[in-house]
Amino acid sequence: MTDRAMEGPTPRPAGRLAAMGDIGAMSVVVIAILVTMHVVSGFVPDYIMPSPAAVAKAGWKILTGDMLHVMATVGRLMLALLFSMIAGVLIGLIMGVSASIRPFLRALVVIDTGIPALSWILLAVFWFKDPEVRIFFILTMILLPFYALNTYDGIRALPKDLVDMIESFRPSRWQIVRYLIAPHIVPYILLTTKTVVGYATRMVIFAELVAAAVGIGSRMGLAQSSFHIDEVLAWTFLLVVLNMVLQLIVSGFEKIALKWRPEASVR
Question: What is the mean pLDDT of the chain?
């Protein structure tokens, strides 16, 4: 008997097993939803609950004829997320390193978090004529506070011993930001992105429904007004898939950016 056989099978990494478990659970939930739709569609009219086959047909129609609207929504979402990330992180950095400006910026951010999304949507309709500017403004005003506050909290969470050790070398302000603060806030930025990407997707759809003629939100509004609930459900499933793809992209980038950090597990 070889040494390899005596050692037994090589254990699979915990992360791979967890991923397989997530995929299995997701498959079960999706199948349960489809079965429920199929059963319910047999007892109610099509305009209440269409069959999964009708939704799939509407989904194929979307994929073959409405990709321009999908790309428009994704482009708006990516642009607003990127700008909000950059501006929010800068504001959070200023809040973290400047004691004199911090109270004013924090007050502005806190006030922003208290303004409902609907207020920003209505104000954007009044203030801006261009639909693209409206949607960009709405998403930025909603997403920016998340990045600013989480970046600020990340700076506040710096270990005091580490700060004291770095300051003993008398570094410049730029060196503190580059070698101490920047590496520490990366997990906070990625966590914020994972948290807000689904929320941002819902907000861009809502904004397009009110303030744009191109995009998934506008197409969902058109489908609702023409009583095509199969298209509404098809767009909804597409948005769920889009959100999952965006989450996977952010998670993949997180693994690359934080590969130096060992992943802890609690038994």
Answer: 86
